[in-house]
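User: Here's a structure from my thesis project, written as structure tokens. My advisor, Dr. K., wants to see whether a designed sequence matches the one we expressed. Can you design one independently, without my sequence as a hint?
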């Protein structure tokens, strides 16, 4: 198989200097690196081809032989080529070619990072969800140690230069024409190690506290609503800001009122006389005592709507409705007078004990079934 011209592969002329060569290779390597083109065999081959070309042209002696004799001039020397397995991850490509693009490992490890967000579960009553409330909670959390400012080292001479990387935060490995930089395993990229731990936090960099916090619960919240307390989460890393605390709410079931979205439902019992004759009853709601009119001939399961007495809509001035559903209670024990009156009433009422003729809808349903 005939090999392509190395200058053509990198897209440079034969008089290119070292900087121009390096710039051309950087551009091609970034474009065709396997981590950027997973599963693309063509891109992988172009990446290997560019690496091989650069490995020859960046070496003065190999370039001289190649310029004089072409590919034949490289025979007898180490066979040019490139093994991409040395790059297990795209972020591992460092050295003078890629540091400008990706940054050193030590900079990634030592840069300030925001602390973790923390979750707190809070159970509230339905009334609190409707009216809103300020609740005080006690939250155990980690706080950056004020003595060592999170370093874990004693404020007086607690830090020392890392003996492995000599303060650089990274260790450089040479492989052929590339310089591969990796985070120092001893100091994790900080460049310094703890020689004398902080006496207050015992070298952890943070202390455990229990803080009292006030949570403002707005009207209209429901189970699953979360309230954010900024800066009350986990401590930051390397001087970064703390995370946030998220209070997740769960609204307890009410013994009388059932919530369905922004509407409330309750059931009120009626005796047979109230249902037949109609009545006015009083219902205690979250907005005080309300007078409810029971229509004449009310049936079991009928309901009336009280507008605007439901749950407030979150971040809105409007409210849902309250539905009062009636339940007809038939007495199980009667006095003699009650029985006499009901017997008289029975004599005056039509009996409907005979089977009822099916309506048109029932007949059509039976036909198709």
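Assistant: Designed independently from the structure alone:
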């Amino acid at each position: 198989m005939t090999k392509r011209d190395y200058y053509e592969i990198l897209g440079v002329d034969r008089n290119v200097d070292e900087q121009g060569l390096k710039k051309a290779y950087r551009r091609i390597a970034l474009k065709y690196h396997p981590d950027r083109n997973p599963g693309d065999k063509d891109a992988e081959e172009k990446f290997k081809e560019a690496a091989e070309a650069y490995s020859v042209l960046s070496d003065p002696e190999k370039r001289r032989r190649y310029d004089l004799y072409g590919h034949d001039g490289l025979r007898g020397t180490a066979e040019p080529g490139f093994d991409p397995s040395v790059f297990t991850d795209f972020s591992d490509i460092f050295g003078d070619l890629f540091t400008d693009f990706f940054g050193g490992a030590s900079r990634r490890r030592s840069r300030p990072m925001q602390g973790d967000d923390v979750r707190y579960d809070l159970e509230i009553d339905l009334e609190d969800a409707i009216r809103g409330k300020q609740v005080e909670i006690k939250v155990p959390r980690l706080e950056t140690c004020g003595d060592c400012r999170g370093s874990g080292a004693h404020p007086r001479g607690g830090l020392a230069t890392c003996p492995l990387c000599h303060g650089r935060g990274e260790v450089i490995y040479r492989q052929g024409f590339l310089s591969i930089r990796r985070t120092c395993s001893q100091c994790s990229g900080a460049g310094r190690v703890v020689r004398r731990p902080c006496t207050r936090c015992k070298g952890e960099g943070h202390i455990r506290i229990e803080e009292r916090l006030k949570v403002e619960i707005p009207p209209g919240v429901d189970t699953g609503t979360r309230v954010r307390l900024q800066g009350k989460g986990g401590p930051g890393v390397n001087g970064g800001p703390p995370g946030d605390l998220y209070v997740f709410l769960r609204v307890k079931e009410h013994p009388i009122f059932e919530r369905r979205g922004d509407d409330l439902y309750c059931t009120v019992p009626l005796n047979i006389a109230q249902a037949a004759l109609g009545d006015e009853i009083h219902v205690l709601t979250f907005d005080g005592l309300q007078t409810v009119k029971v229509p004449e001939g009310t049936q079991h399961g009928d309901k009336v709507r009280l507008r605007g007495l439901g749950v407030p809509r979150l971040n809105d001035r409007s409210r849902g409705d309250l539905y009062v559903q009636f339940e007809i209670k038939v007495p199980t024990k009667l006095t003699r007078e009650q029985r006499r009156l009901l017997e008289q009433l029975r004599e005056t009422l039509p009996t409907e004990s005979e089977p009822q003729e099916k309506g048109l809808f029932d007949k059509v349903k039976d036909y198709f079934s």
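When you compare it with your expressed construct, this may help: Confidence is low (pLDDT under 50) at residues 82-109.
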